[in-house]
């Protein structure tokens, strides 16, 4: 039996349709029918051959790392129920290296798989996944919502809650109110902090206001407005979801003395690495903290917050798998507010 897929045959070129053999689950593996798959800017880097692993990437390749689906078949030694809807955790650690053993599986040294990055992803109807890397979706959360959870929503959770250490009463500034930023804003609010969204786009700022941002601002106005909000002190925590150009310096300028800047956005192009104002780091003791994806326990907690209605996945629009190239162009042009999600195998 063959399955529909959209594949990358040549870096920098549109994805093309292809029929692929339906995978078969082995021991401790599950066959997942992919119901929905989200798209983000990292997909553009993967398809453009701009990732550190691109030189060794085998082609053709199936992208798509934000995957929600349902269990269709079980390999030996698995216990999930057929029909259970799930979110795929896309970073399959080895479980043996020092990061994995210390609870930092998102930094694994010897990955078993990296869904949509170096191993096949969710832009195909079926995907085989180790059972341990599936998180059940609550009944009140749709597969379309689930497709935004592991990356857009989950990355925002780790950046604000775990790495940023947000506390009630603090002021959190989010640079870039896109797929990750709009969810980071909600986690800040759920923690009892004041949330400030900073973006160039009016649609993004309007959405942030609908999500109960305490303040929205364009980049050129952000510093003055945050100082006014905080009685001249500055933001306790700044989450930079941009990571290029002057975003790092801008983030540093918004942080109070002794504040924290969490770096989420990034570039792989050394010519465009943003400068770091070291005087702020030293003289103002502003901490700069990296944040990458999240761990499985964090994903479980983030999904629970959605199920409880405290955080809402932000979906820009839902398109069909065959429309993936048009969807990617919308992402490239910053025309998506939140996540664009593709229907893959069935109605969701």
Structure description:
The protein is of the alpha/beta class. It folds into 2 domains: 2-148 and 313-343, Quinone Oxidoreductase, Chain A, domain 1; 152-290, Medium-chain alcohol dehydrogenases, catalytic domain (Quinone Oxidoreductase, Chain A, domain 1, Alpha-Beta Complex). 28% of the residues lie in helices and 26% in strands. The strands form 4 sheets. Strands 3, 4, 5, 8, 9, 16 and 17 form a 7-stranded mixed sheet that branches. The protein has a 6-stranded parallel sheet with strand order 12-11-10-13-14-15, with helices on both faces. Helix 5 (179-190) links the parallel strand 10 and strand 11 (194-198). Helix 4 packs across helix 10 (296-307).
What is this structure's SSE topology?
Elements: E1 2-7, E2 16-21, E3 29-39, H1 41-47, E4 66-74, E5 85-88, E6 91-92, H2 98-101, E7 113-114, E8 126-130, E9 134-136, H3 143-146, H4 149-163, E10 171-175, H5 179-190, E11 194-198, H6 202-210, E12 215-217, H7 219-229, E13 235-240, H8 247-254, E14 255-263, H9 278-283, E15 287-290, H10 296-307, E16 315-320, H11 324-332, E17 339-343
Parallel strand pairs: 10-11, 10-13, 11-12, 13-14, 14-15, 16-17
Antiparallel strand pairs: 1-2, 3-4, 3-8, 3-17, 4-5, 5-9, 6-7
Helix pairs in contact: 4-5, 4-10
């Amino acid at each position: 039996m063959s399955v529909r897929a959209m594949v990358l045959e040549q870096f920098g070129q549109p994805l093309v349709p292809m029929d692929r053999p339906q995978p078969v689950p082995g021991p401790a593996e599950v066959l997942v029918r992919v119901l929905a798959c989200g798209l983000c800017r990292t997909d553009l880097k993967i398809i453009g051959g701009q990732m550190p692993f691109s030189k060794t990437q085998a082609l053709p390749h199936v992208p798509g790392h934000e995957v929600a689906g349902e269990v269709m078949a079980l390999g030996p030694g698995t216990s999930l129920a057929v029909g259970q809807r799930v979110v795929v955790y896309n970073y399959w650690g080895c479980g043996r290296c020092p990061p994995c053993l210390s609870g930092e599986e998102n930094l694994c040294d010897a990955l078993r798989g990296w869904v949509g990055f170096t191993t096949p992803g969710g832009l195909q109807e079926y995907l085989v996944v180790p059972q341990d890397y599936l998180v059940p979706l609550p009944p009140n959360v749709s597969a379309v919502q689930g497709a935004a959870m592991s990356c857009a929503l989950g990355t925002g959770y780790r950046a604000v809650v775990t790495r940023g250490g947000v506390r009630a009463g603090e002021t959190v500034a989010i640079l870039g109110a896109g797929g990750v930023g709009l969810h980071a804003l909600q986690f800040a609010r759920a923690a009892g902090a004041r949330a400030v969204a900073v973006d160039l786009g009016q649609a993004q700022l309007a959405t942030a206001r609908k999500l109960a941002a305490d303040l929205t601002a364009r980049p050129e106005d952000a510093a003055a407005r945050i100082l006014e909000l905080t009685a001249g002190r500055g933001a306790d925590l700044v989450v930079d979801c941009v990571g290029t150009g002057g975003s790092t310096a801008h983030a540093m300028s918004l942080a109070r003395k002794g504040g924290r800047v969490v770096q989420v956005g990034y570039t792989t192009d050394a010519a465009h690495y943003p400068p770091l104002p070291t005087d702020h780091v030293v003289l103002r003791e502003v901490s700069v903290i990296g944040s990458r994806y999240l761990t499985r326990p964090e994903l479980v907690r983030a999904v629970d917050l959605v199920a409880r209605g405290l955080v809402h996945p932000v979906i820009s629009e839902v398109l069909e798998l065959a429309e993936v190239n048009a969807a990617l162009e919308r992402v490239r042009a910053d025309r998506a507010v939140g996540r664009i999600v593709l229907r893959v195998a069935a109605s969701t």
